[in-house]
TrEMBL record:
The keyword Cell membrane does not apply. One of its GO terms (cellular component) is respiratory chain complex IV. The keyword Magnesium does not apply. This is Cytochrome c oxidase subunit 7C, mitochondrial. Pfam families: COX7C. It comes from Aedes albopictus (Asian tiger mosquito). Signal peptide: none annotated.
Length: 67
């Protein structure tokens, strides 16, 4: 039973890799953002990480000012 599921999974992954139109071996090719413009990449990382790490402090400030 498990061998059959493993074989189906292996076949599915092989087909996925084969027909994904990926050339392979190029770093960053499968990322959802471009690595071409390093300044835009840096700005996006700052915004992404800053929003996630700063959100609790903004929520805390909002709750304290609500009183």
């Amino acid at each position: 039973m498990f061998a059959r599921a493993a074989a189906i999974s292996r076949t599915g992954m092989t087909n996925l890799v084969r027909y994904s139109h990926s050339h392979g071996g190029i770093p960053g090719e499968n990322l959802p953002f471009s690595l071409g413009n390093r300044y835009k990449l840096t700005a996006m990382f700052i915004v992404f990480l800053g929003s996630g790490l700063g959100a609790p402090y903004f929520v805390l400030r909002h709750q304290l000012l609500k009183q």
